Fold these 4 entries.
Entry 1:
Amino acid sequence: MKLKLDSTVELLNGVEMPRLGLGVWRAQDGQETENAVSVALKAGYRSIDTASMYQNEQGVGRAIRASGIPREQVFVTTKVWNNEQGYDSTLRAFSESLDRLEMEYADLYLVHWPVVGKYKETYRALEEMYDQGRVRAIGVSNFNIHHLEDLMGTCRIKPMVNQVELHPLHTQKKLFAFCRKEGIQLESWRPLMQGRLDLPLIQELAAKYGKTAAQIVLRWHLQLGIVTIPKSVREARILENADLFDFELEPEDMVRIDGLNQNQRFGADPDHIDF
């Protein structure tokens, strides 16, 4: 299948989720967030990933409305933060997120981290909101295999997405295989390794394909079938990150990139969170 900027993956419930989106982590609410989202939407992106913790949901909502693009054509993800978890508090947090976005529904709502003793009740609230039609798809973020197995032992609705740190230095092959077997769509945050793009192999492939190092890494994600949401507030970088659809990595180069894995995280380990 030839990938395009508007290519989607089908989630467990039939909802179509764009393969490439814009992440707005650390983007300042207001002009910075609005400019980034506006540039992305104008370039053809149709997925925006935010969270209550990012404190920029208002800017995301304003930019989407200002774009003139019909709401149903933009896939909006947000997340419940750790101090909001629990059944009742998650219901409140979701309503507050919708208020800040000024939207009647979200396309995807995620449990941001697996807070011990809380994430099952939190997810139960997500199921309730899904039943009410206030969110089109639900899932989790930063869940390891044992978290998913524990959750699926009691939940009514299987998570449709698991958003995790995944990149060539942390390929998460066991988690990837587990999610694929269960029909859970894996999504990558921090796909560009916090800027660690000076790896000799990535530089070699950038020269071979006439692309940037970032484009090589993002194309690797897409060809694996992983949804990815590179974050940027710079127009040139947002456009560069979307210019992935006029080339294809050869199978042997995909394997070579896989071989860079060092199980190296740049973010927190989900088994050891204290925030």
Entry 2:
Amino acid sequence: MSIEPTPTGSLAADRPKAVSAPYLEITGLWKSYADFVALRDISLSISKGEFICFLGPSGCGKTTLLRAIAGLDLQSQGKIEQAGRNISTLPASRRDYGIVFQSYALFPNLTIEQNIAFGLENTRRSKAEIAARVGELLDTVGLAAQSKKYPAQLSGGQQQRIALARAIAISPGLLLLDEPLSALDAKVRVHLRHEIKALQRKLGVTTIMVTHDQEEALAMADRIVVMNHGVIEQVGSPTEIYRHPATLFVADFIGETNQFAAKILADGEVEIGHSAFRCRTEGFSTGQTTTAVVRPVDIIPHGADAHAVNAVDRPVTPQNLIDAEVREMEFLGMFWRTRLTAPRLGERTLVADFSVNAVRRLNIETGGVIQVEIPSDRLLLFPRSA
């Protein structure tokens, strides 16, 4: 697959960008089961070639939405369009997609090559064309040497690759993945998620994957659709979702958080545990109670006298600097997770993740006292729930 170079220079910069219609357009979609509403007014646009992850806890509606797109469980109301074609009421057999289920659903009595060829046999291709396509796909997923084996003779990761090959055999316009990696062990999952993403980019197929694994979504998706209780909480790139969560649910579900009851003191200042901290307070009024959130990874460790150190290393004294005692340390391989107590935060424990190098350089140890900085731009505020 060749990639055309992007034009450079003033003419290209001045040229207006072409706006293409969404490849998949979901509008006002609802799904109810008797008195239970599984999906509530879902609207979403997906561009051609995008890799989208539906992410959320069990029961949030992500699989129900995928099944509605596939025509396996029709919506109660709403419209779904694919490539400008209204597919809202079409049966699954008349929709243009390939799907990989959580269980892979391979035919145990068919060889690997027969599994892949199964969907091709109804496309009026000759046996030679089918054999060539199967061989091409086996090469693509790196399992050409396993073609005569049966699914039970393959590892879970190999079965997943065959299920992918079968799903893309007919070159569908849309690839649907229903938690395809959840049955695999952690190391294999990490390896295969890179393979799936590389294959998706190579094929350019629009892909939707359902997952409850935040790390998986952050690593693979072009955009993430975070769902909760049948509604979409936020849609954005992995960076946007992680760094700029739209709601407290998104902040808490994506990654780890520290949460504190807080009150707005003035513009750019909030009270936590009887102490003032700097942060962005736009959208809140003085005296309003909020929930302040900071991620453990955003907390910056300093030495015993950070003011003296930063007078040399940094021209500006760090804001939100607090003294803290290290109560617990947990080694997690690439970093240390620490639990700190600080008088300025009251009785609450502050969880902070420090790199192995920082722990070694600053001689951080259980029982020791350090200073930590809570960057003002990483201290986020959300409306306090009742």
Entry 3:
Amino acid sequence: MLRTISAVLSAVLGLVLVAPAAQAAPAACAPVDWGSGDKYLYEGHAPYLTDIRAGRHECYDRLVFDIAGTPGGYSARYVPEITHDASGEPIPVRGGGKIQVTTYSPAYDENFDPTYEYDDPMELVDVTGYTTFRQVVWAGSWEGTTTVGMGVRARLPFRVLVLTDRLVVDVAHTW
């Protein structure tokens, strides 16, 4: 009996000593003061759009508009539904919140040749598994602007950043 207890204790102790250390929990995200209100900036029209891509971060999801030069501005706001440029036709979008982003950069050059092309207007970027993003859709490029719709989990705070050659939209995972 004593030998059995000793063997069990040795086995348990051995497991404890060789078990990997527990992974540290990710740092809590600091509350953001970005808000969910309309955001806009206009400094004129800019060079054309070259790409749209997304990234995941610990505290927010990010959508990036690559521009062939300095962005001229944007309009970003929560809307009841995403609509096509010019026609105003609604576009179905997954998610409890919908952000319509317009950049003052066309998706075509001075000869009206496309500078940004996509395979599926209903899935511009694969956001499968993202914490906040649910879908990114094409809403058109017309009269020097390009519009994209973002389906997000809920109405959450977001910010827009203008960088040297890109426009960035971050949507927080929580308030």
Entry 4:
Amino acid sequence: MIVGVGTDLVDVARFGASLRRTPGLADRLFSPAERTTSAGTPRAARSLAARFAAKEAAAKALGAPAGYRLTDCEVLSAADGRPDLRVTGRLAEAAVALEVTTWHVSLSHDGGTACAFVVAEHR
């Protein structure tokens, strides 16, 4: 049963400019695993923008619970390359309360925009 759905769009150029303008912003928004690829190289701004959109979309799927932080959601890559979510903190509390057992995540970037679609499911 679908518990919640969230989506978000991010302007890649604007997001990239924010990362360049604000030293340490990427460190405050993303874990080390989110900031680097499986090969250990830094992720491009478009990829980070899509991950930022997924964090927002995950919060929306849970009703944007009061007190959540963007760092309560980590967007990782599964062994097969698909994006996967790990929630902690306030988002994890909300997910437990809503009995979320499975997350479905889709990330995309094209034409200067990054987007994410998140489905929270109870099986």
